[in-house]
Amino acid sequence: MPAHPPALPPVRLTSEAELARDALATPLLGRAARLARWAGPATQVGAGGELLDDQLPAAAEALGLPAGDEGEALAGEAWRVAVDTGLVTVEDPQEGPGGEETPGTAEAGPELALLTGGSPQDVLGIWEAALETVLADAAVPDLEGLAEMVEAGGEFDLDALDWDPEAEEELLELALANLYTLTLMAGAEAGTPVPLPALAATMVASDEPMGEPSDEVLEFVSDTMMRLDDYFRALEPVGLVEFWPVDEELMADADEEPGAPEPEEDISRYGMVRLTALGRHALRLRLAEAGYEVPVVGDLADKGADALLDGIAGYPPEAVRDELAAWLDGREAPAAARELLAAARGVDEGAPLRRLRCQEALSLVGAEAEGALREVLDDPELGGLARVWLAERGAGDVPPPSQELVFWLTVDTIAAQLAAEGNSEELQALVEGLADQHSGFFDAAWRVEHPATADVLEAMGRLHPDRKVAKVARKAAFKARSRQGA
C-alpha cells in the first residue's frame, strides 16, 4: 500500500444484507456460480485447475456467451474465480500405469450452497475471494503477444513486456487507495464519478512546486490513464467499480496514448470511474489491513464533544454534517450545546477550527439550546459565535458585540477557514470583501489579541489580488508578529 495520507474521511457503509445482494448481482460471480452448477463428470481440468481448451467452448455456451476467443476468455476467467472461491472443487490430473496423464475432474464445491442458503457474511466472504482473484489478474500484463511469439518459434522474453510485478501491484494499490479517498472527499453518497485524468494526477510523485506540469508529468499521467483504463475494465465485472472507458477515438493511433484533456474538452471521453457500495466496503477492509485508519460515519457518536470536534477537523463537509447529526441524535440540546461550547475553547493552533465545527454543530440544534448560548455571551472566545447563533434565530435582547470582539471573531473565522480549506476561492472572496468594506481594517487587525493574528494577516496578503492592499496586509502581519514576540 502507498504511504498513508494525513487522514481518510469516514465512509457511510451499506448494510451487509444489501452488499450481499449486490455481490450476487455482479456479472462475474454470477458466471462463476453458473459454471459451478454446470460442472460435472465430463468436466476436465489441467494441473492448475483450469478448464482444458476443448472445454472452454462448452463453458462459454453454458454462460450464454458468444462463440470465439472473447466468450472463451470470459468463461475461463469465471472458472478461475469459481475454483479460487471454492464454488468448484477440482481433482488434479493423475498419472496412469503406463505414464499417461488422465485429465483432472471438477464438481460443484461446498461454497456454492452458501450463495443461496448462507448468511450475508458468507456471501461477502465468497465475493471478497473473487475480488482477490480479479485484483491479482488485473496487475498482470496481456500475455497474448508473447504467446504468439512463442508459437512462432521465438523465445519467451518477459523483459519485452517492460513489466515489474511489484511496481504494477503498487500502482494498482495506489490507484485504489486514491480512488477511495477522492470518492469520500467528494461525499460517499454523491455518486459523482472520478475522471481518470484526475485520479492519475493524484498518483504523480514529484517534489516540484505546483504549477504548469512538465512534459515528464504529462507523459506519466497519460501512461497512467491507460493503465487505469485496463485496471478498471477488469474490475468492473466483479462489481468493485462502475466504469466508463477511454473513448476509442482517442486511441485511434496505436502508437500514441491520449494526452491530458484540454480545458474546454469533455473530460468524460478520457474515462470515468465510480466506486460502488461493494467497492467502498472492500477497499475499506484492505486499507484497514494495511494499517490505515478507516473511520465509519457514526464512530464518534458515543465520544465526548472534545473528541468529536478534534476528530472531524479534517473531514469534508458532508462527512462533518453526518457525524455531527449522529453525535447529536439522542442528546438533550441544552446539555449538548454546553458540552460543545466547553470543548471549543482554547488558544492552541487547532482551536479556531474546533470553534467552526462547534458552530456547525450548534446550527443543527433547536431553540431549546438558547439558554446555553446566552451563558457564554461574555466569553471572549465564544461570545461572538453565540451572538451569531442567537441572531440567526431572531432572538431578542442580545447585546451588541464590542469592536474588539468583532475583530477577534474575524481573525478566528479566517484562521478556521485556512485550516479547513486552505487558500480557497471562498476565502479569497471573504478577504477581498473585508479589505474593501473596512478601509482601516489592517490598522486595527494587527492589534487583535489572537494567537493566529499574524498568520491570518500574512494569508490575507497572499490572497488579496490588489498588490497595494496585499502589501498593507503584510506590513500589518509584521507588526502583529513583532507585537506577539515582544
Task: Give the structure's gist in a few sentences.
The protein has about 475 residues and is mainly alpha-helical. The chain has helices at about 15-25, 25-40, 55-60, 70-85, 110-115, 120-140, 145-150, 165-185, 195-200, 215-235, 275-290, 305-310, 315-330, 335-345, 350-360, 370-375, 385-390, 405-420, 425-435, 440-445, 455-465, 465-485, and strands at about 45, 90, 95, 100, 105-110, 195, 240-245, 270-275.
The amount of helix comes to: 40-55%
Sheet with the most strands: spatial strand order: 1-5-2
Count of DSSP strands: 8
Structural class: mainly alpha
Which runs of at least 5 residues are low in confidence (pLDDT < 50)?
none
Ends distance: 48 Å
Which descriptor suits the 3D outline? elongated
Cα gyration radius (Å): 30 Å
User: Whole-number average pLDDT?
Assistant: 87
**What string gives the helices and strands in order?**
HHEHHEEEEHHHHEHHEEHHHHHHHHHHHH
Q: Tell me the fraction of residues in β-strands, as a range.
A: 5-15%
How many distinct helices? 22
The major beta sheet can be summarized as: 3 strands, antiparallel
Task: Give an overview of the whole structure.
- It is built from 22 helices and 8 strands.
- With 486 residues, the protein is mainly α.
- The protein has a 3-stranded antiparallel β-sheet.
- Helix 3 (56-62) crosses helix 4, helix 4 (69-85) crosses helix 6 (120-138) and helix 18 crosses helix 21.
- The protein is elongated.
